[in-house]
Amino acid sequence: MSLFLLFFSAAIVNNFVLSYFLGICPFVGVSKRVSSAVSMGMAVTFVMLITAVVTWLIYHLLLVPFEVEILEYVSFILVIASLVQLVEMFIRKVSKPLYDTLGIYLPLITTNCAILGLALFSVLRDYSFIESVVFGLGAGVGFTLALVIMAGIREELELAPVPKYFQGAGITMIVAGGLALAFMGFAGMI
Predict the structure, then answer these.
(1) Using CA atoms, how far apart are residues 22 and 83, in angstroms rounded to an integer?
(2) 145: helix, coil or strand?
C-alpha cells in the first residue's frame, strides 16, 4: 500500500471517530467551538504521531526481542499517559486560556481509545516504522477533521431554529450520525 493511500485511508475512509467510533468523548465534548476543536485536534494529532513512533519502537525493539508481547497493552498505555502529561504541561505553560478551554478533555486524551486503537492497529497490521508514522499522522488529521466539521455544524446550529425536543444532545447525536453516514460513503474506496 502506498503511503498516500495509507494516509488517506486513516484520515478519511477509516476515520477513527466516524468509522470506528473511537474517541467519541472529545468529539462530542470539545466540538462546540471551531477554535477549541482545532486546538484539541492538534493536541490529539501530536499525541497520535508520537504514540505511533514510540509504541512501534517499544514493540519491535523491546517486546518482540524479549518475547514479552503480552505487555503491549500495559506499555502502550504507559506511553500514552506519559505523552499526554507532557502535552498538558506544555499547553498549560504556553497558553493558559487554551488550557482552560480544553478543560477536562485534555487529560482525557490519556483514556482516548482512538490513541490506544492506533497503537494496536499498527501492531496488528504489521506496519513498518514509516507506515506507522504515516498512519498516526493520518489518524490524527482525520480526528481533527471530524472534530472541526462537527464544531462548524454545531456553531451554525446555534443560529438555526432547532425544534425544542432536538436541542442539545439530541441534535448533536443526529449530526454525528449524519457525519458517520457521510463518511461511510468512502468505504470500499481503498
Answers:
(1) 19
(2) helix
Q: What is the pTM of this model?
A: 0.88
For the CA atoms of 56, 58, 62, 63, what is the dihedral angle to 10 degrees? -80
- The residue written with cell numbers 517486546 in the block is 63
The structural domains of the chain, with segments of one domain joined by +, span 3-183
The alpha-carbon radius of gyration of the chain (Å, integer) is 17
Distance CA 161, CA 167 (A): 9
The share of the chain scoring above pLDDT 90, in percent, equals 59
Buried-state track 99-132, b at ≥16 Cβ within 10 A, e below 16: bebbeebbebbbebebbbbbbbbbbeeebeeebb
Q: Does residue 31 contact residue 159 with C-beta atoms inside 8 Å?
A: no
Predicted confidence (pLDDT) per residue in 72-86, tens digit: 999 999 999 998 888
Please give the Cα distance from 91 to 97 (Å, whole number).
9
CA distance 80 to 28: 21
